[in-house]
Amino acid sequence: MKVLIIFDHPYTANSSENVPHHRSYSAALLASVTRGLQSSGHNVDLIDLHADGFNPVMSGAELSAWRQKKTLDPLVKDYQKRLLAADHIIFIFPIWWEAMPASTKGFLDKVFAKGIIYEEPKKGRPFVSQLKKLKGVSLLTVMATPGFFYRWIFGNPITKILFRGTFRKMGFHKLKWYNYAGMDGRKLEVRTKALEKTEKRFASF
Hints:
The chain is α/β, with parallel strands linked by helices.
């Protein structure tokens, strides 16, 4: 499969090693996922939003173009082509204030454009996905909030935004979420085992 990974962390994908003040467990997960996928022969296409210098802010001119089913930003246009070519999409990012970081939200706002990534056949009716090759979507998140609190107190807001409010809204339902809660307080051995398990999971894709 052609697997597109959208990665969002200010330290970029180069922060997967355990280097103080420049380490990201999200990046370590990215490295594990990539190794697993490549070991099974999958083609991995990485979008590293911060390394690319992606601007998540929608300008007035961009919104006007969006309404006309056009794209002004060459980077956004490139992202759209890569989405349309993907068999599987993987999002990897930390949870901040119970939701995704700004770059991922901006990615949804600007890249998931009507007339390109989805269609709205009739006003007020379900959208129709234009991601014709897509077979599945995976989400990997890292958070400090305990998983129990995130689910029962906050109501799993990330799945409501990314799954229910985006992909299910477009009629796509093959979605999986892998959450890594409280990893900053775990021993190195525990964190390492979780990474090994992740690599094995994606090696069996």
